[in-house]
Amino acid sequence: MKLLTLTLCSVFALAATQLVSADEKKEAKPYPLKVCIVSGQPLDAMGGPKVIVHEGQEVKFCCASCQPRFDKNPDKYLKKLEEDS
After folding, report:
1. What is the mean pLDDT of residues 74-78?
2. pTM for this structure?
C-alpha cells in the first residue's frame, strides 16, 4: 500500500510540474518547427503534440516519451531552433 501511495504521489507531482499556464504560453517564444524537436517526426505523428515551455521557449514533441530525452540535454535540442531561425 505504501508503494502504491508513493507511486501515485510521484505521478501527480510529475504531472503538476509539466502543467503550463496560459500566461506562460502567451509570453513564450513560439515554436517554429513542424516536427518534433527530439525525433524529427511530424508533430501529429502520435495523436497531437505535447507542448511545454522551457525557459521562455515553447517546445513541442510528437509524444510524451520524447520529453525525457529533451530534459536530459535541452541545449542539444534547442540548437535546432537556432539553426532554423
Report:
1. 97
2. 0.69
d(CA 43, CA 23): 23
The helix or strand, by DSSP H or E, that contains position 69, with its residue range, turns out to be helix 67-72
DSSP 3-state of 57 = strand
CA atoms within 13 A on the CB side of 49: 19
Q: What is 21-84's CATH number?
A: 2.30.170
Q: What tens digit of pLDDT does each residue of 9-31 get?
A: 554 444 444 455 555 557 899 99
From residue 21, give the alpha-carbon distance in Å to each of 37, 40, 64. Answer: 21, 26, 18
Residue count of the chain: 85
- Give the whole-angstrom CA distance, residue 56 versus residue 65: 21
7 C-beta neighbours (distance < 10 Å), count: 10
**Rounded Cα–Cα distance for residues 61 and 18 (Å):** 13
